[in-house]
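User: I'm preparing a small set of examples for a lab meeting where we compare how different chains pack in three dimensions. I only have the primary sequence for this one, and I'd like the structure in token form so I can line it up with the others. Please keep the answer compact; I'll paste it straight into my notes.
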Amino acid sequence: MVEQKKRRGGGVMSSKVKHDYQEYTGVDAAMSRVKADKNSVTGGGGFVDNSISPGCPLMDRIHVNILAFIETRKAAKDDPVYEGLDIWYSGHDVPGEGEHKLLDALRCKQLQTAGYIGSESHLFYGLDADIVLMT
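Assistant: Understood. Below is the structure token output for the 135-residue chain.
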């Protein structure tokens, strides 16, 4: 809206209108700084969910913890729940979307396993519509 006022008024703005415009943008800039401080990770206002991306320190920590969890489960030979269980993990450091990586892994297993049973069940879960379309 401010941009529209600026464009429409052009050079014919009176000094009063210019003064109001400057006050408005000053308040707007101050409010945007307050919002930025409130929403920033370091500003103490909380966690910003769009700060999660491949390669960020949080993803590296999650990756290390998932690998450690998988290793502890593989080491638990006496637990019948994990006996004969295949765990496939493709972290954030491997390029590609998750659903594509899963289907590629299934195709590789079909090609590499001589006795692969085509009627095996697989569960895919995700919030992306690609999974529905691909499976």
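A couple of notes for your slides: The CA atoms of residues 110 and 118 lie 8 Å apart. The chain has three domains: 2-47, 52-87, 96-135.

User: Perfect, thanks.
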